[in-house]
Amino acid sequence: ALRTQGPMVLGGLSGAVTGTFRALALSVGVLIVPVFTIYLLIDFDAVVTRSAKLVPRRFYPKVSSIASDIHRTLGQYIRGQVTANIVLATLYSVGLHFVGIPLGVPIGVLTGLFAFVPYVGFGFFFSVALILAVLEGSGILTVLGVIAVMGAVQLLDAFIITPRVVGGAVGLKPIEVLLTMMAAGTLFGFVGVLLAVPIGAVLKILVHHAAQSYLRSEYYLQEPPGAHDHETVVARAARAVADAAQEKGAS
Q1: Percent of the chain scored above 70 by pLDDT?
Q2: CA 147 – CA 116 distance, rounded (Å)
Q3: 87 CB neighbour count, 10 Å cutoff
Q4: Model pLDDT, residue 2
Q5: What is the pLDDT of residue 26?
């Protein structure tokens, strides 16, 4: 029996250890983002000042314009994300309150506030709400109510709230937000979904400035060879026609 069950036990222990380390790595990754953000905000002005001194003077106006646009867009992203979190917290808390689970309002508020962390915040508080619904013993309808509320608000967030509120704040259209999040999630997973909207907004700014520089460049504005000669021939022909008409009118 030991020989038969030994590999199964070892496989189960290995899976549990691997899952534990993955969960810890994910938790550390989630915690690193706000910590890094806080320290970056503390030293942001000093970093900007030192970086500006390294930019060659002939490029400084253009770089300064791009940096100002990025800075303004990221600020609008944070304000849009906070607004979306408040809307989500309200929807979650009201829905769970009407479902009737214990601590429905606090769970809804926390779910909305942690919505900026993809999957983790929603998954954790969804599990907590389900556990409380089961422990309450109110029946299957309460459990189904929790699933319906959490699922409906999650769909609203994915297809309406985040694309319109957060995307609108940074100048991205809803379809651009959805495509950016899908592409970033496919390529970079959790981190890609977390940073999809601000990175998409920054890339849009860079593409816009690149297009404007191209449209003002000599390469774009340079006329094709012989254009002036062609214009001269056309002008001479027009002048000849005008002179002939004038002579005909005088005669």
Answers
A1: 78
A2: 20
A3: 19
A4: 46
A5: 66
Nearest to 72 by CA among 198, 162, 214: 198
Contact call for residues 171 and 204 (beta carbons, < 8 A): yes
CA distances (Å), origin 157, targets 14, 43, 63: 37, 33, 35
Q: Which amino acid is at 216?
A: R
Helix (H) or strand (E) holding 3: helix 2-42
| Tally: H helices and E strands in the chain | 10, 0
- Tens of pLDDT, residues 81-102: 999 999 999 999 999 999 888 8
Is 207 in a helix, a strand, or coil? helix
Q: Please, what sign has the CA dihedral across residues 33, 38, 43, 45?
A: positive
Q: Which amino acid is at 121?
A: G
Decide if pLDDT at 161 tops 80.
yes
Which pair of structure tokens corresponds to residue 216? 């003002």
Angstrom distance (rounded) from CA 147 to CA 245: 85
Q: Which residues contact 77 (CB under 8 A, 6 or more apart)?
A: 166, 169, 170, 197, 198, 201
Are the C-beta atoms of 198 and 181 separated by less than 8 Å? Answer: no
180 to 41, 188, 199: CA distances (angstroms): 26, 12, 9
CA distance 26 to 212: 41
